[in-house]
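Today's session is about reading a structure prediction critically. Students often jump straight to the picture, but the first step is always the sequence itself: look for stretches that repeat, for charged clusters, for runs of hydrophobic residues. Only then move on to the predicted structure, which in these notes is written as discrete structure tokens rather than atom positions. Here is the chain we will use throughout the hour.
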Amino acid sequence: MREMTKGANVGLADLSDDAGTVIASLSWSSTAGDGDADVSVLLLGADGKVRSDADFFYYNNPSAADGSVQLLGKTPTDGGSEDRISLDLTAVPEDVERLVVAASRYGGSRFGDLDDLRMTVADRSGEVLLGFSIGDASVESAFIFGELYRRGTEWKYRAVGQGYETGLAGLATDFGIDVDDEGENEAADGIAGPDDGEGASPAVESAATAQPLPAVPAQPGPQTAAAEEQPADPAPAPKRPRARTAKKKVTLPAVATKSLAENDSWRAARLFPASNLKSDKEREVRATSVLLSVMAQVPEFGRRLTAAFGAPAGRMQTFTEVSLPHGETPKRPDGVIRVERAGKLWTALVETKTNGNELKSEQVQNYMDIAARRGYEAVITLSNDVALEGSPLVEVKTDGRRKHKVALWHLSWAEVAHQAQMLIRHEGVGNAAHAWLLQELLHYLQHENSGCHGFQNMGPSWVPVRNGIDEETLSQGDPRAVEVVESWERLIRQVCLRIGGELGQKALPVQRTQRGTTALSRRAAHADRLCEEGRLAAELRVDGSPGTITIVADLRTGKLRTSVEIPVPEGAYPLTSAKRLMRQLAEAPADLHVETLVEGQSGPRGTLERLRPEPGDVLPRDGSRITGFRLSLFKSMGATRGNAETGFIRSVDNAVDRFHSHVIAHLAQAERRTRRTPAPDPASAPVPAPAGA
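Below is the predicted structure for this chain, in token form.
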């Protein structure tokens, strides 16, 4: 890997023979676990500006129609998160000379609050070619991490590291994006704009000011993108911009249409029936065929899944039960994916497991060897398991003497369902037929007989660890505790995928770790705490939520606790804050526990049922300053290791769902109402009549 310094550049062809498609990754960490940023990509012409607003790709405009740019979303890392972008350089229009890769923060946050700011670029096989770290971030709310630019027929990378104090809006304006007045366009947020053309045409709006935010002026000359900028009059930090999309895409309605069935015994005809599946082999064959056929017929979906694996944007065909020679006995992978672009083929072999069956190293190794000999690009494994850093699902060996590199990727059924749900419920697809196909796929994946329900077993160590905690015989350093922690981490990641797909929001597990901590050491420390305290703990951050959701599974008491901490504004009156909280929780469950936080310590507490008539009972009697409130719901924990109705996994899902829908959603809705309601204008208040009038 080539380590870059600020301002340095390198040709991608010098680093890899297969850099036509690359994966750019932006990462950061936070010891507090609450750091976040959004990536964006701008396509620039010879004049250093976008050709139109459609050349600006970010969270509301995540992919290009030609497949040249696709934002792949965030994945959790040891201490933070990594945002990946697929860049198909062979598909970039000829009049585009530069691709600028940037990230922005919002809500007054700054990049100086984050650690380990870094950009890497990997080739199609997943091998990291170069890395660039930014160590001088401070008050900036947007950063250009790097850019890819043409030199003749070659693509090169330049390490930029240029910051903006004016956020995403300032950065966008600097490259020719129109920044709209929020007051003028607020009602049109998410609605087609006046230019109803073929491409998406996002218009970035500032939510912080009534006028467009000023851009930091660019320095002239060939090194513009890498030059340091010193704004003379920095603008206040903008809140997160919003966008309008010109081209309306098709999503399914949230409420199903009324059924025409005479009674509940009538079942709708399904495109992919799952009710008659009996054996694991039947499930694997059916699931592979169903998934691959929908990928080929719905380009948005097929591209969404394969872009993360380095596939180009092109014509896709999929095959099942293909026989390939391998020694004396031919091998039959479950599926093959082929993508053609400009006469070149990208090929991936697919190995599928359902119903919780484990991938077999020998089987995957055979497919890796076949792919290497035949010049295929990838092997994709697909199972109920969720992959973790530092804990591979299968062990394979690669022959370093082979010039051709084969990438091994893993996809969980939970990720497949997440991507389908994001498209048909939130982001939209090209036409109603595609939306219907994805809906049928999602129904199949969620059917009890499909075997595609995602992670569904806490593993063989679950019962011994539970018994050891109950009998106080489990000792620190027990490897079975580490296995349970890994299963817990997989479960939490799956919960994030599911709830993120349902809400259409980013949902990620939060890792609070010290710098330099590895995934293995972090899990070992968590396992030691499990042995000592008997508790599994995790935190989830969901966009739009008023705080981080904490879930604790107490194996000693058999209870699950989901909670969130709500801070009290500085200078607010305690009783006013308590009454306001009770109003926000008017529709929350009566058994919700409210606990006052006093300078980081626990204060008075009680159930919502008891506190509603007397909000003042939650305040400390000695007048200590309160910093916030902790809201918690308790639920009995499932005992068995599986995904049955009484199982542990199902109980965790239900606990998070209930807490989010009955507590978090009400708090977020109340907060939005508060933001929309303007503060009273003292000048318009009625003047009291003079005495005696």
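Discussion point for the tutorial: The longest helix spans residues 648-676.
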